[in-house]
Amino acid sequence: MKMNQSLGPIQLWAISVGLVISGDYFGWNFGWQYANFTEFSIAVGIVAIFYSLFSFSFTELSASLPHSGGPSAYAHFAFGAWGGFLVGFFTLVEFVLAPPAIASALGGYFHYLFPVVPSMIASISFFILLLIINLLGVKQTAKFELFVTVIAVTGLVLYTVSLIPTFDVSKLNFQQEWNFLPILNALPYAIWFFLAVEGVAMSAEEVKNPSRDIPRGYGAGISTLIFFAFTIMFITAGNIDTKTASKLDYPLSYVMGNIFGESNSLVQIFTFIGLFGLIASLMGIILGFSRQIFSLAREGYLPKFLAIINSKSFVPSNAVIFGGLIGIVALLLGDTDQLITIAAMGACGMYMISMLSFFQLRIQKPEMNRPFRMMGYPILPGISLILSILFFFAMIFLYKKLFLILGVCLIAWALLFGVRTRKKIGRIPKNELSPDNMESALSRADTDF
Questions:
Q1: What is the CA radius of gyration of the chain?
Q2: Other CB atoms closer than 10 Å to residue 147's CB: what's the count?
Q3: Residue 124: inside a domain, yes or no?
Q4: What is the pLDDT of residues 380-401, one digit of tens each?
Q5: The domain that contains 361 carries what CATH number?
Q6: 368: alpha, beta or left, given left = phi > 0 and alpha = psi -120 to 50?
Q7: Which domain holds residue 192?
Q8: Mind listing the pLDDT tens digit for each residue in 194-251?
Q9: Is residue 169, in this structure, part of any structural domain at all?
């Protein structure tokens, strides 16, 4: 059954920004536990350069091969079944473990507004509510995502404007000594400013005109996110000691409350708006992980019942529910800081293999239709590849225990689904959407890669 093609560039902008905008409201500030202002600023700068280059390389892939599997489909096309399997694992780690971290912060913000409601109860309630909205259909989800994203962006503008009068440039101590190791330690939290923005590619099968709309929506989205990452970081550091804000699930509300008073109406309004930022990301990532689970199940990496599309809503309902259940369990058992780190580790693995897929396809498939081409090839995408490798192995070096857990999970999944279904894997199933409405390699069920 074919998915509903109803998304345009505005909706894609909303999805790309909405996927990530919670990273401006919380999570990134944990980086100040490991690095001073200068070190963290360098980390954010490096990550911003990477995402700027990666986003356009990824745009080339998603416009050329519009497929709900996103990076797993690109790796499958470039390296075969096991390439898609490996990237699919890393992408699932990123997209399934990021939502519980966001839901945890969402509960914290709600508890800040209404102390009578326990934060965990609020977190689970919001998670379930957004799962239900995702089950209604992608068109309804995209409309809601656009609505909450616009409100969330308005909140960041309000935060910035209200704190400019109290901004103290002397607190931005660029004269601090810096070392390389703290920069590496801060990488997961710098990445959190942008984590999951590539999820917009997982809606590619539901885009009206992928070759035109994906570059426009994705490019506008990454530009918006880079602007707010630096703005929020600088405004926050110029108003409060960085160590004070380094352990909070609701840092922006804390900063405003510290300056204007917690009972101030402006602070209460901003915190309420902040809920929409977290809702936007949670909503968007649920959309992303459900499409990734759906695609992996359709390819044989996961049980086939997860690839069933609801005949009324055209939504992979079982994939939405399955990913949601895993997220709720992680929310109950996990720590926000660790969830962010593991999600970032999964993202780094996916980024590295996606960039390898980019070069593999450029070399092996030069004739492939590319409606959008990454500029500055091979230098600019080469820089992106080098940074992705650096990020991935830095995460392994710094978080060996977490990587060991991921390794065990990967081997278990390979034994359970990879080996058992190996003879069935090797074909990317029928995908009727392709660039310029022409049949592509991904749209032919009988094509071996």
A1: 21
A2: 15
A3: yes
A4: 999 999 999 999 999 998 889 9
A5: 1.20.1740.10
A6: beta
A7: 9-441
A8: 987 876 665 666 677 776 787 788 788 889 999 999 999 999 999 998 888 888 878 8
A9: yes
Give the pLDDT of residue 318: 94
- In degrees and rounded to multiples of 5, residue 139 shows phi and psi of -65, -45
Could you tell me the sign of the dihedral formed by the alpha carbons of 330, 336, 341, 345, in that order? positive
pTM of the model: 0.82
Q: How many CB atoms lie within 10 A of CB 61?
A: 29
Q: Is 449 part of a structural domain of the chain? A: no
3 within domain boundaries: no
Q: Is 83 helix (H, G, I), strand (E, B) or coil?
A: helix
Place of tokens 């968007």: 284
Name the band, by pLDDT with cuts 50, 70 and 90, for residue 24: very high
Q: 171 is written with which tokens?
A: 């607190």
End-to-end CA distance of the chain: give it in Å, rounded: 23
Under DSSP, the state recorded for 305 is: G
Find all residues with CB under 8 Å of 339, minimum gap 6, and list them.
97, 98, 100, 101, 104, 330
Strand partners, 448: 427
The Cα-based distances of 287 to 31, 174, 214, 330, 406 in angstroms read 27, 40, 16, 18, 23
> Around Cβ 268, how many Cβ atoms within 10 Å?
17
Q: How much of the chain exceeds pLDDT 70, in percent?
A: 87
Query: How far is the C-alpha of 213 from the C-alpha of 324, rounded, in Å?
Result: 29
Write the secondary structure of 396-431 as one string of H (helix), E (strand) and C (coil). Answer: HHHCHHHHHHHHHHHHHHHHHHHCCCCCCCCECCCC
Strand partners, 207: 7
Burial bucket for residue 261 (CB in 10 Å: 0-12, 13-18, 19+): exposed
Domain count for the chain: 1
Q: Coil, strand or helix: which one is 98?
A: helix
- Quote the tokens at residue 228: 């707010």
